[in-house]
Design goal:
Chain lengths: 106, 114
C-alpha cells in the first residue's frame, strides 16, 4: 500500500492550524494508521494510532481523523515545538509502509 | 518506562553482514511485536520487518533474501542481521515496540564503506 502525504511542506506561524493529509492506495484494514512526529537527530515519536487515538502524553491539540483511504492529522494551534516532519504509517497490510512525510516549518 | 537501545558496529564493509541488537529495559518482550525501521541520511522511513516475542517474523519483501531477525528473551534483546550490504544500506537503524512504534530506540547510524 502506497501512502501519499500532502503537502510536502507546510509553512505556517505559531498559533495557526495545521492540516496534514495522508492518502492510501487501498482501503486500510480497521483504520490501522499511525502518525509520527520527527525532529532532526531524533527518533520518530508516536502521536496517533488507529487513525484517531492519541498516544500517551500527546497534547490534545493533535488530533487524527479519517477512514478508508483518506486520513488527516490536525494540529489545532501550532506551538514552536511542533515544527518538525510528520509521517503516516499503515500497519494493517504487509509490507507495512510509511508516507513520504510532511515538513511543517515556519 | 520502557526504553530501547540499539547497539552494534557503526561501520560495515561492503558485501559483509550488518548486525544490530536492541536491548529493552523497563518491560518484557513478551506479548509484543518488535520492529526494525531504517532511515537513510536525509530521507524518509523504511519498514524492515518485525519479530514476535515467540520468534515469528515478517520481513519487507524488498529485503527478504538478505534479512533475518531474532529474539533472545533471556537477555530481553532482539536482533537484526542484513547480509551482503552495499552503500545503499547506509542508514540510521531504529528498533521499536509494536507494529506501530509506541516506543523507539534513539537509533544507530550504520555506514557501509570500505
Amino acid at each position: 500500500i502506497v501512502l501519499t502525504q500532502s503537502p510536502g511542506t507546510l509553512s505556517l506561524s505559531p498559533g495557526e492550524r495545521a492540516t496534514l493529509s495522508c492518502r492510501a492506495s487501498q482501503v486500510l484494514t480497521s483504520d490501522y494508521l499511525a502518525w509520527y512526529q520527527q525532529k532532526p537527530g531524533q527518533a520518530p515519536r508516536l502521536l496517533i494510532s488507529f487513525a484517531s487515538i492519541r498516544a500517551t502524553g500527546i497534547p490534545d491539540r493533535f488530533s487524527g481523523s479519517g477512514s478508508g483511504t483518506d486520513f488527516t492529522l490536525t494540529i489545532s494551534s501550532l506551538e514552536p515545538e511542533d515544527f518538525a516532519v510528520y509521517y503516516c504509517q499503515q500497519y494493517g497490510h504487509s509490507p507495512l509502509t510509511f508516507g513520504g512525510g510532511t515538513k511543517v516549518d515556519i | 518506562q520502557v526504553q530501547l537501545q540499539e547497539s552494534g558496529p557503526g561501520l560495515v564493509k561492503p558485501s559483509e553482514t550488518l548486525s544490530v541488537t536492541c536491548t529493552v529495559s523497563g518491560g518484557s518482550l513478551d506479548g509484543y511485536y518488535w520492529s526494525w525501521v531504517r532511515q537513510p541520511p536525509g530521507k524518509g522511513l523504511e519498514w524492515l520487518g518485525y519479530v514476535y516475542f515467540t520468534g515469528i517474523t515478517n520481513y519487507n519483501p524488498s529485503l527478504e533474501s538478505r534479512i533475518s531477525m531474532s529474539v533472545d528473551t533471556s537477555k530481553n534483546q532482539f536482533s537484526l542481521k542484513l547480509t551482503s550490504v552495499t552503500a545503499a544500506d547506509t542508514a540510521l537503524y531504529f528498533c521499536a515496540r509494536r507494529e506501530w512504534g509506541d516506543y523507539w530506540g534513539q537509533g544507530i547510524l550504520v555506514t557501509v564503506s570500505s
